[in-house]
């Protein structure tokens, strides 16, 4: 049996445009490998991994992953717990990369069933899953999200370009034809039209999908147009990596995977900015306000239309091998893909999720339901 592969797992991220992606199943183990396992009883490690998924049961669903997707999944979990006889699923915010590390570590009751992600699963993560006998990964695209720079409502309103954001955050910036260590301390040093206040930005760590997306959609896009970077790093892949390097002199402060911690920092420091998903901004609109980026304020309509270009799709991944391990999984998946959940009138839209188009949602629903 030939497998269907996530061939676009590492494709460059672009601003949201309504396209049909849907669900894919990733099947990596060939029949020859299965036959070898069946015949060779000495391969105890692989057999034990598989047996652990079928012989040991857990009476609740375990979910890890993206801090951006966390509030959406937590809301689904709470409703699911109230509306059914199942236990409320346990949802943990570990970051996209951290979630995949846990998710792909093995099969059985000791390992998560779902992993939230604010980017597509990467080839290296698929390989880690495959190495641990996880060969049937279900991908649900639940909608879209914008990434915002926001500050306290007590602070100044920011109107920034992507290049200005890059110059505030990059480790190396162009100066007199060469790249130097970033000397900028205040926003006004980058552009006199900006406030004369200290640059201070709170954001997620490198394991975060939001950090990955922000680096690609903001930093890289601005950086790749800078001649000094093009001259210094002729190889495009190397140049892209260099464009993603953020300064480490205290102007950018990693605040872990807890968006609420960043929110608290902004409450206490009106001059600081934080990097969030649009959904978190919507949930906390009475406390924080978003900066305009390239003269566009992030909003539902601006993200859907593509005018606000700092946006990306959101996903929930699951292990089909666990469908028999955790009885609630199939019903929970049906709840996720319900039109009442992620449809244009679904309750997650009220929490800031940018919904799929009707054709995208129908494709996701059809493919998922056929797989259960």
Describe the structure.
38% of the residues lie in helices and 17% in strands. The chain is an alpha/beta fold and 372 residues long. The protein folds into two domains: 25-144 and 313-371, D-Maltodextrin-Binding Protein, domain 2, CATH 3.40.190.10; 147-311, Periplasmic binding protein-like II (D-Maltodextrin-Binding Protein, domain 2), CATH 3.40.190. Strands 1, 2, 3, 4, 5, 9, 10, 11, 12 and 14 form a ten-stranded mixed beta sheet that branches. Strands 6-13 form a two-stranded parallel sheet. Helix 6 (162-169) crosses helix 8 (209-223). It is globular. Mean pLDDT is 86; it is low at 1-55.
How many DSSP-defined strands?
A: 14
- List SSEs in N-to-C order: EHHEHEHEHEEHEEHEHHHEHEHEEHEHHH
Query: What percentage of amino acids are in beta strands?
Result: 15-25%
**Structural class from helices and strands?**
alpha/beta
> How helical, in percent, are the residues?
25-40%
In the residues, how many domains can be counted? 2
Low-confidence parts, pLDDT < 50 over ≥5 residues?
1-55
**Count of DSSP-assigned helices:** 16
Task: Map the helices and strands.
Layout: E1 25-27, H1 31-39, H2 44-55, E2 62-65, H3 70-83, E3 90-91, H4 96-103, E4 114-117, H5 123-131, E5 136-152, E6 159-160, H6 162-169, E7 172-175, E8 178-181, H7 187-190, E9 201-203, H8 209-223, H9 227-232, H10 236-243, E10 252-254, H11 259-268, E11 273-277, H12 278-283, E12 288-290, E13 292-293, H13 300-305, E14 311-319, H14 329-336, H15 339-342, H16 358-371
Parallel strand pairs: 2-3, 2-4, 6-13, 9-10, 9-11
Antiparallel strand pairs: 1-5, 4-14, 5-11, 5-12, 5-14, 7-8
